[in-house]
Every structure is written in C-alpha cells, then in structure tokens.
Design a protein that fits this description.
The protein is an alpha/beta fold. It contains 15 helices and 14 strands. The protein binds FE3-S4 cluster (F3S). The site of FE3-S4 cluster has 15 residues, from helix 14.
Length: 406
C-alpha cells in the first residue's frame, strides 16, 4: 500500500502512540481489502457508543486510546448511546448502566468526538455532499449517506471510524471506488408501497436476498412530499442494512447516482429479483398477539417534521401505553421550542434523545412486548432485547399506544 510521508510518519509513531495505533488499523484494513492508497475523509460518524453493545472491554479500549493522546482531526460525531442523558433517571434506566454510559461519552468527548448521539446526523445539519469521502459507521446512516446524499463511505466499524477521524483518512476500497457503486441486482417492484413501514418491509425482503450487494429499484413511486419521501428512504435503507448488509442502493429516477447514470448504474450481469408482495416480510416481523408494554418510534431517529406528524396523529388523545419517540437532542430542543414535546408529554408519550430502542437496556428494564414502525428495529429487537415485536405503520403504532393493545 502506498503511503504518503505524513501517513508513514503516523505509522512510525512520530505523532504519538494514539495515531500510530489508528494508522495500524487503517493499513491493516487496507491490506485485507486490497486498497492501494488512503483517501482523505471530511467527517466520521462513530458507532459502538452504547454500553449495552461495547461493555467494560469497549470502555477500557477507548480509555486506553484517549490516554495515548488520540484526538480527532476531522469532525466526528457519536451514534446513539444506551441512555437519554436528561431523562434516564425519570425513565427508570439502571443507575450502574447509566454511569458506565456517561463515562463512555466523556472518553469520546475527550478525544474530540461531538456528543450528537444520533444515527441521523443529516437531520441536524451534517450533510455530506455528493462525491464527498467520509467514514461513517452506523449502518442506516451509511446507507443514507451513500444512497440518498451520494457521499462515499464503507460501513465502518466503531474503531475504524475513530481511526479515520484521528488520521483524517481511510483506505480507498469498497464504496470509495466508482466500480463498486454499480448495482449488482435489479429489483423489480410490482406491488404498491403505501407507507414508510411498507418501504421497511421491502427493505427487509431485499436485504435478505442481496446480502451486501447494491440493489437498483425499479417500479417504485416515492411520495411527492419531502418529509414522507425522506422517511421512506430511511426505512428501506435501514431495513436492508439490518436483514442484509446493504450499504448503498439506487432508486430509478430518485437517488442521485441513479439519476446521473441512469441505466448505466446497473452492472451488465446484475441478477433480477421480482417483488410481488410484502407478505413474507410482514409475517416474519410481526409476532402474533396484541399485548404491548411499549410503543417505540424513531428507528432511525426522527426528524422534526416526522415528530410533528406524530404529534398530529396523537392529536391530544390520552395514551394507555408508554410511547417513546427517539431522536437527537438538537431535534428535541427544536421540537420543544415549537410546543411539540409538551403536547406529546401531556398525552403520556416521551421524546427520547441520545438513545434508541435497540441500544437502550430495555430487557434489563423488564420491557418485553414492543410495537414499532421500523423494520430494522423489528429485525433486531428479538435478538438484542429478547423482545416480542408487533410491527405496523406509524398510524397503527400510535393507535396501539392510545388503545393499549396492538
Ligand atoms: Fe438508529 Fe438505533 Fe435504529 S441507532 S437506526 S435508532 S437501531
């Protein structure tokens, strides 16, 4: 692998042990994947923040790196953690878990990572441009950045995204290269998609079929309204990243690379997959029964506009079951300024920041029956939280919280 003088100096430890370790990770990755050189990145999004996921060994690993004076050299942001920093006591999160979580956040802050604690940084003004090279790690954020924004990132692990943030570069392989961004599968959609939940179901099916391929969707009509369209992009991308390992997709006529390349975005030997209905996904994600302990929305984290629509759906009705809506602290503050948080809380719901239903310690808190509108959450909740999942549209989920059953 060809390294610049600066990169070689990082590797030789001339800029300290922290950067040496970071460069070693990047070079090792580059060698595994056949990269010929590094590519500068403009930002890094760091997953592996929740104490639920990384535990004591993760905290120790991060602390060691911080003690070796590793500091970010490009803007870097945290993915959701396991607690809401404001509400964890009120919501009954376990004290020991919360203290460990706060320590992880502090260590990352010490290294210069911003505590955005969100998987939708593009809703808080972090919007990489088409063609920009970045090193993001949360799978739905990676999918959105590549597919909807046209930026270029591999699906980094937490440590490799941090290493990229410290060195300001990442090995040039995978989705940083044009040839790997061409579609490997042509997905012909023959059914109507009526909601973002349907896009999630479609994503679940396609992720299972294409693995880590690049699907090109044809026959999809996206909503004209931008907020709804964004929710659909998020839902399909997050679901494909969860049921498969899709980090980039194209939708004919809508996503930027499909628009600029047209039919040339598809490899000549692409496989063709027909999707006739969504029944198989609906059956797989929706476990029988109507009991619920909690209704959760916001996987991926909601935008201000989505929060507004949810508040409208609640319409001041009293909720019989807890409803948690996950977002970033910045979006929550904007929503609070518009009276949306008060309106949701008066009905009995909560707007959670910094965390989500998959990385919070829900199982430890005795929450078992969970309703959600997210195919990604529905995919992970049984394995990550031991939960029984009810999957439905946003409207069905809000209705379930109002009625007390699904
Ligand atoms: Fe985001 Fe958590 Fe879902 S990190 S994509 S809300 S699993």
């Amino acid at each position: 692998m060809k390294l610049t003088e600066k990169e070689q100096a990082f590797l030789d430890g001339k800029h300290g042990l922290g950067l040496k370790k970071a460069m070693e990770i990047l070079v090792a990755l580059g060698k595994i994947y056949g990269a010929k050189e590094m590519v500068p990145v403009t930002s890094a999004q760091i997953a592996g923040v929740s104490y639920k996921n990384i535990g004591d060994s993760g905290l120790e690993f991060l602390s060691d790196w911080a003690n070796q004076n590793a500091r970010v050299h490009v803007p870097a942001f945290m993915n959701p953690a396991g607690i809401d920093r404001q509400l964890w006591r009120q919501l009954g999160f376990p004290e020991a878990f919360a203290q460990n979580q706060l320590e992880i956040i502090e260590v990352l802050k010490r290294m210069g990572v911003r505590a955005t604690l969100t998987c939708t940084p593009y809703h808080i003004g972090i919007v990489p441009q088409k063609g920009e090279h970045i090193a993001w790690s949360e799978s739905s954020a990676v999918s959105y950045a590549n597919s909807v924004l046209g930026a270029r990132t591999n699906r980094e692990g937490g440590p490799s995204a941090l290493a990229a943030a410290f060195c300001g570069r990442t090995p040039r392989f995978g989705l940083h290269l044009h040839e790997n961004r061409l579609a490997t599968h042509r997905i012909l959609v023959h059914c109507q998609l009526k909601s973002s939940a349907d896009f999630g179901l479609l994503g679940y099916l396609v992720g299972k079929k294409v693995g880590n391929g690049v699907p090109f969707f044809q026959g999809i009509d996206l909503p004209a309204e931008e907020t709804e369209r964004t929710a659909c992009f998020k839902a399909v991308g997050a679901a494909m990243a969860a049921s498969g390992a899709v980090a980039l997709y194209h939708i004919e006529g809508f996503t930027p690379e499909a628009k600029s390349y047209g039919e040339r975005i598809v490899k000549p030997d692409a496989r063709v997959i027909d999707i006739k209905d969504l029944d198989e996904a609906s059956l797989a994600l929706n476990q029988p029964g109507d009991q619920i302990d909690l209704v959760t929305l916001g996987c991926p984290h909601v935008s201000l506009e989505e929060l507004k629509s949810i508040a409208e759906l609640i319409g001041g009705q009293r909720l019989q079951k807890p409803l948690w809506i996950a977002t970033s602290a910045i979006v929550r503050e904007d929503a609070r300024a518009q009276g949306l948080v008060d309106a949701i809380e008066q009905a009995g719901g909560r707007v959670l920041a910094d965390t989500c239903m998959v990385v919070a310690p829900l199982e430890e808190m005795g929450i078992q029956f969970i309703a959600t509108n997210s195919a990604k959450a529905a995919t992970y909740l049984p394995s990550h939280q031991g939960a029984v999942v009810r999957f439905g549209t946003t409207e069905q989920c809000v209705k379930a919280a109002i009625n007390g059953y699904f």
